[in-house]
Write the structure tokens for this entry.
Amino acid sequence: MSLELVLITGMSGSGKTVALRALEDAGYYCVDNLPPELLQSFVALEQAKKDQQRVAIAIDVRSATSLPLVPQQLLELRAGGVNIRSLFLDSTTDTLVRRFSETRRRHPLSSQVAAEPDDPLVRQRALVDAIELERELLADLREQSHVIDSSTIRPAHLQAQVKALLAAPPSQLTLVFQSFAFKRGIPVDADYVFDVRMLPNPHYEPGLRDLTGLDEPVEDFLQQQPDVERMRACIEGFLRQWLEPLAQDHRSYVTVAIGCTGGQHRSVYLVERLAAAFGEDWITLKRHRELERA
């Protein structure tokens, strides 16, 4: 059996520790903040063991000077038979600023950005600058990873998402459908975004307003709307045309985000319908961002 390696990376404050804890609970041997220079040596040691075949490693911007080594190292490890899955934890800049402000932690790159400690506005600007610098340093790793947007989800839901993603067979493409509300922003982890706000809205039906797209009365209402069915067919047709080429391009995950105004009715309904349709042919997961905030 080949070694299964999960690489956890991402923005400081985005939940890497939570994700690593989820993997530890799932039986992975976990190492936090491994210097990239030691990655290949560490993997070689783990491969020599007979009792450990699942390893998770967190690498982040604290190893900024050696981060450029990682993409090539991953290519070489894959060529050597190591099964690698890379997850990148991300959040919006506003969310990261709020989290650092609430916890009063220093950003790992704060020493590289000048700031006056007695001026809150300058401190915040320095924090934003540090976050943007971190995005630049991690851009190559983000490009090669499956991105998880932790901006609006609780730690328990983040742990569940990580476990669900890694439960899928690594050699097959996994399709992730996600509903969201445009008023709360587009998910940063979306590969494709579909806007369904032009469809009939159950929110304006008094008996349906407090329900969601998971409830039968809302399902019945939307099933009777020709435009809803036309939208579902268009999205399904587009994805069926391009999923096979994406799989052949060695993509592990594709995230399809469907948004309406409040993320409660139309987007939830369509995610459920599409996940059911594609679940017959592909490994399929579904998320409802706004429902998980409750």
Remarks:
- The CA atoms of residues 85 and 166 lie 8 Å apart.
- The chain has two domains: 4-167, 174-292.
